[in-house]
Fold this sequence. Notes:
The complex is a heterodimer. Chain A is mainly beta. Chain A is built from one helix and seven strands, in the order ββαβββββ. Chain A has a five-stranded mixed sheet with strand order 2-1-7-5-6, covered by helices on one side. In chain A, strand 5 (61-64) and strand 6 form a beta hairpin. By secondary structure, chain B is of the alpha/beta class. In chain B, helix 1 packs parallel to helix 8 (301-315), helix 3 (134-142) runs parallel beside helix 4 (160-170) and helix 8 (301-315) packs antiparallel against helix 10. Chain B is globular. In chain B, strands 1, 2, 3, 4, 5, 6 and 19 form a seven-stranded mixed sheet that branches. Chain B has a five-stranded parallel sheet with strand order 8-15-9-10-11. Chain B has three domains: 10-117 and 253-340, FAD/NAD(P)-binding domain (3-Layer(bba) Sandwich); 122-249, FAD/NAD(P)-binding domain (3-Layer(bba) Sandwich), CATH 3.50.50.60; 348-403, no CATH class. Chain B has helices spanning 22-31, 62-72, 134-142, 160-170, 184-193, 198-207, 257-261, 301-315, 319-323, 326-342, 367-371, 376-383, 395-403, 419-426, and strands at 10-18, 38-41, 77-80, 84-88, 93-97, 102-112, 116-118, 131-132, 151-156, 174-180, 212-213, 216-222, 229-234, 237-242, 245-249, 252-254, 266-268, 274-276, 289-291, 358-360, 365-366. At the A-B interface, helix 1, strand 4 and strand 6 of A face strand 8 and helix 3 of B.
Amino acid sequence: xxxxxxxxxxxxxxxxxxxxxxxxxxxxxxxxxxxxxxxxxxxxxxxxxxxxxxxxxxxxxxxxxxxxxxxxxxxxxxxxxxxxxx
Amino acid sequence: xxxxxxxxxxxxxxxxxxxxxxxxxxxxxxxxxxxxxxxxxxxxxxxxxxxxxxxxxxxxxxxxxxxxxxxxxxxxxxxxxxxxxxxxxxxxxxxxxxxxxxxxxxxxxxxxxxxxxxxxxxxxxxxxxxxxxxxxxxxxxxxxxxxxxxxxxxxxxxxxxxxxxxxxxxxxxxxxxxxxxxxxxxxxxxxxxxxxxxxxxxxxxxxxxxxxxxxxxxxxxxxxxxxxxxxxxxxxxxxxxxxxxxxxxxxxxxxxxxxxxxxxxxxxxxxxxxxxxxxxxxxxxxxxxxxxxxxxxxxxxxxxxxxxxxxxxxxxxxxxxxxxxxxxxxxxxxxxxxxxxxxxxxxxxxxxxxxxxxxxxxxxxxxxxxxxxxxxxxxxxxxxxxxxxxxxxxxxxxxxxxxxxxxxxxxxxxxxxxxxxxxxxxxxxxxxxxx
Lengths: 86, 435
């Protein structure tokens, strides 16, 4: 439900409401708890999730509104469209 | 302070500060009364750096809030968040990029407050989802990652492990074990020294845990698609702990890439790592370029604040005022020295990575392929290690510890950048573009 304290984004086509100020990395984990929030596949196809949490390792890179960005350094915004590895 | 639309094409300021952590904020606040036009950039969505990272689950200390408010009242300070340095752009200019566009920022003086990152060492299973850094876990939790009810093992080295455990418990997780690689005499020696820094002693008492074990290190993480258990080694005996998450960090490494790209000299900074070399007024070896905080050696936020004030004042040529903070800086430098002395990494950690353990997570290069190389350049040519998206920031520091290889020389772009940003600078007069 939409409240002033939440924003709603789409992760891999599914809507998700999170607290304002939540990072996309945190949202990945909320949307995909069983897999700990997978962001990408490695060059050999391994699932990778946010790792360093501070914009260094690049493991959490996802497609946000058509641009490749780091999920740990992006805030969730209303209407944001996130594509992560499945 | 104005947080408005970023400028286009070419902007100019008197003082440019890279990084809005404690050092960068202190530098900006110290320099602001001079009336200089100041720009502060940070790649995170909010100021505060790692230690004062804001987010829905962050609890900022009063000092951090006070400094943020004070900065917001400075009309001559402009804070640009979610902004990264892509490259140098000729003398006295840097190329920036945010989520929308790239632009060139010219400056008269530059203050580097680029902080530190965690030393993340490879061990079997470290690429599994559910493994993060220790500070990494804190950062993710502050940014709203839910960990309530998770069973967590924290491992590695340094006081950050206790801080991470505190954050995890506060967020409702169950901390099963805190594994410190340093031995009891070293940790006890460090704790005894804390009497010289009463604030730190109080902090340590607040974080004390019955789950803490010294001389204990991670062996491996296991699980199908995510962490399900962690093996730890203590006194020759291996134990396996079922858990949902492992947070593992082996201390901090100064972020020197931008300074090195600018030609700033390095100096040994404790803990076996190199940091940006600075003089008593925080000036680097390059004229007009200052550095403050963890990029000059890891030492905590109090040292960073003192250094930031000195750098900010020195940059506006108030040297006498800058010098008045030198005793405070020395007090916290002594704390940093104790930290490095007591939490030195055991050489046995070099054998954590097995031949098939990936060392380079970007290009999936296993330890065995690197062990066959003689140096970083050879490894890069033969294995693509360090040529992926992180540009050697993780594997370079790991290879430095594992093999003693000199970290790779930074090359532009410093972080993955959009073609449009790079193309923009190639068109600038007097700049011959980027490789």
